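hey so i finally got around to running the thing on that chain from the lab meeting. sorry it took forever, my laptop kept dying and i had to restart like 3 times. anyway pasting the input first so we r on the same page abt which one it is
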Amino acid sequence: MGLSERKLRQQQEVKNQIIASSREIVNMEGWAALSIRKIADAIEYSVPVVYKHFESKEAITAFFVAEGFAALKKEMEACVVPTDPIEKRVQQLAEGYWLFASKNPKDYELMFGVGLPTCEMHQQVPAIAELANYLRQFIDELIESSGKKDLNTCVKYRSFWSILHGVVAIELLTINRWDSVCPSEVLADSIQAFTQSIQKN
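ok and heres what got predicted. didnt touch it at all, straight out
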């Protein structure tokens, strides 16, 4: 292995240490406790070394936000059975969303700390745009299956995501039921009402 390759590998190892230590600090103390100084102390490097890889604390949290949305999409995809009817697949999406939030509460809180992702965030974070496009495919199919021509896909997409986030925020984040990974009856009822509002005349 050449000198340049060894140097690149060492830099990646340090970056991985920064990421791992950041996550450990967050898991122990929460996102508010995360700081460049604390990370540097944890990995036993100087503060400038951390800044070499991440220009600020915000850059570190942005990394975790992007990673979180990619993981959320993966969790939802794993729950969907492609051959099932569209209304059932929409329910499966909701279950995957719930499972991700229940297993990754601190990541979820960071990802949605200021509410649902804005259009600007879609443009800045590819992982958010990819998840949004993935969800919209299901909403488009659900609307198409209804035969209705007067439904706004964007509105229905936002409504769907708002339902998911609202139930998670109320039932998981506020009362810390992290020991339960089974989607609630409230979530199932809400998604059923959502699909019926589109499909029924």
